[in-house]
Input
Amino acid sequence: MSIRPGQAADSPSDTGGDSEALRVRIGTRALASLRAAAPRHAALLEDAGLCARVERVALASDFAVDTLRRQPALLEHLAADDPAPLPEPRLDPAQPLAWPTQLRQYRTAESTRLVWRDVLGLDDVDATLAGSTGLAEACLRLALEAVEREFAERHGVVRDAAGAAQRLVVFGLGKLGGGELNFSSDIDLVYAYPHDGESDGRRALAAEDYFARLGQRLAKLLDEVTGDGFCHRVDLRLRPFGNAGRVAWSFAAMDQYFQREGRDWERYAWLKARAVAGDIDAGEAWLETLRPFVYRRYLDYTALDGLRTMKAAIVAEMQRRDMADDLKRGPGGIREIEFLVQSLQLIRGGREPALRGRRLLPALEALVAAGQIAPDHGQALAAAYRFLRRLENRVQMLRDAQTHALPEADEDRLRLAAALGYDGWETLQQALAQYRAQVSAEFDALLVPRRGEAAPDALESYWRALPDGGQAQALADAGFADAEGADASLRDFARGNGVRALSDAARTRLDRVVPALLGAAARSAQPEAALRRLLGLLQAVLRRASYLALLDEQPSALARLVDVLARSALLAERIAAYPLLLDELLDARVAGSMPDAAAMRAACAAAVQAQGDDPEAALRALNEVRQALSFRIALAALDRRQPAEDSARQLAALADAVVTEVLGMADAEVVAAHGPLPGGRFAVVGYGSLGGSELGFGSDLDLVFLYDADPAAVSDGRRPLEAARWYARLAQKVVALLGAVTSAGRLYETDMRLRPDGGKSLLVSSLASYEDYQLQRAWTWEHQALVRARPVAGDASLCADFERIRARTLGRTRDATALAADVDQMRQRMRAELDRSDAARFDLKQGAGGLVDLEFLLQYGVLAGAAATPALLEPRDSPGLLGALAACAWLEAEEAQTLHHAHAVLLEAGLACTLDRRPRLAAETEAITAARGQITHAVQRHGLRFDP
Output
């Protein structure tokens, strides 16, 4: 019989003469011993089908046969077609001497059931691992509850300072924490408790002593070898300070340890940690507080350093103890798959919550979904993992031994291969070698330092000679026009305190990174600008080893960084100020399609919700999401992967999402301080470039706040406020939160001058006063501004009321001559005051034939025609308004198309200026000249005169 590598036989088959003879001999011996063990066995084994199943199990596991012989009732339970889990034992508080026997017999019986189901094909390897985990958890729970009762009688229960009772928290690490325990594994436990205190019994103990003794008693109950064997081997060495540390730790002590002493390998260990017994809720809540230790908020390539160190120790141990055949620690073994997956989780899990799972296979799937592992590689690793875990289980099932090494005896090897459905040991070895080669290739690819092209020797020698040696000619030869200036800047950087204070490891990274950066900068479009911006960035990240590691490990990020810095002063500033944005250069989504408005809203909402009741953290998290998304939009614009109109619309949609979240945060704060206001409504209206969905990079937000409430209404809180003051406080909170400075910067600057009566009026307007102002007192230019206004956040019914007022205001019949005169007068005034064009450069926004000329033309068209054509009131953006005006024939179709193109040309030129931190003044190009001419011609054709 020939079976694909990793495929198991589901029924007995002819696997060759030696295998068949071995199967018959072992099966006959097992049946004879069972028949002799109990009369009930003899009766059951009259069934030929059951005999065949016993023979198959006997070939795979002496342990199972021995358990069946010791526990005669078990065979009858397993004879069912689909044997269910066995009932848990009841540990009688009055008979503690019986507990070890009960637990051990339960564990061996249930383990035998897992062997039975695995060998007979009733469970796949995933189910077997889950079953082993569930069995360990059940034994832990039963043993802990029994021991807790025992301690409560002797010492009472531990109470904290408030008098609340406390329980031990048992954390499972390793495969127990991951829910993937192998058949005969030890269990890695760490004991903790929430608070210090003292027990309330006659023989009181301090919490640390109480829980340490309790934990030791629990470990002995499970681990001690008796005449019935053991229940579970317990390993407590993963606790803080290992064997030298205390047995049980308070949460506060654990916090201090991980803040001060936590090491890289412990991040790997605690990645899988899970509360498995005792006060599970308290344990899971504390693990949430440990998340920043395990997962850093940035892409953390320093995780690879810890992995290389651990891998080197494992290789040394293997060589010392000749462990090449070790399925766990050997080359291409289980641990390499675990380390590979966990490393990628640690690198990216701080930024991508979907990667934070404890279980390996779901984490592997998440890494594939996130684009961090190729789908075919992910499938190969999953298949190898399942193969290796099944083989490891079968090695342990043979005699319930805690081993990961392949058997040495020829008979054991033949039994293992035959029970797995292979036609001999060599066939199994071939399959194993194939899987291990795949795993090794993937693991080695992760660990090999990813330097990319080696830096030119001349630049490397030049950098290493600084600050005292080195010749500027090396920079000139590389392509720097101002080699002397570049040399001076590099010498200043090299002798700076930041470089001199680096650790040896960080300096080694810097010595690899700088020559590569110099080479990339020399090849860029603007070498001097790229170098100047690079040195500013390096100065900002010198103390953050993770960012040097990112550039060292990822040549694609290094090359992309230099390219971006050479072309965009704005992005250079943002990266230097917020190095977290470096992560975006490696995000697989950066080169893909941009998120839509719904995705942005979801990302902003998730960032805020993830911080719970911490408003400061929520604001910082929201800012980080805004920074990351706007950075992605900027990269797409810089690379011209999308039209400028798309980038402007996305920036506006992002601002909408941010304002929505900020309004929710502000509302919660005002309600907490002053109580809710019954029946009140509030809305935020966006004007200007926000309302017109044409926001730029770094643009401020033109906002107007509206409310509607009973003037006599008063909030229901400790410090009540009447409606007008309540909503004024809410508006102030929104403005303050948008402008608050966090570690990720501020969200947005705001401009409130477009509210009714401008800066002289209240910050927030009632709906009635707003309507009265728009209909009775507003100037024509304010109605022009209203053309682009739209609700961006707040109560849906109030937003609808705003739309009603806007439609009523803009839809009035107007005198065409007076309207044109008003529009001309305002534009002429603005042109005279704001146009910065000169003989060499054109003001893209305020210049003659610029973007504001086009906006005024479109606003004039809406105000002139909305009474007859209400459809003109729907769009707020320039492309939408052009389409609507063409649809009603106010603009000719060809004219509208020409103006749309002109708008796109000027908008793209403006975005390019802001990306490079230049004023929106551009040298005339053929495209810009044509766009200006088209806009000016359209303005004049419709009878408008904008020249002062």
Notes: The chain has six domains: 12-123, 153-294, 303-447, 457-586, 642-810, 816-941. The radius of gyration is 36 Å. The first strand starts at residue 158 and ends at 159.
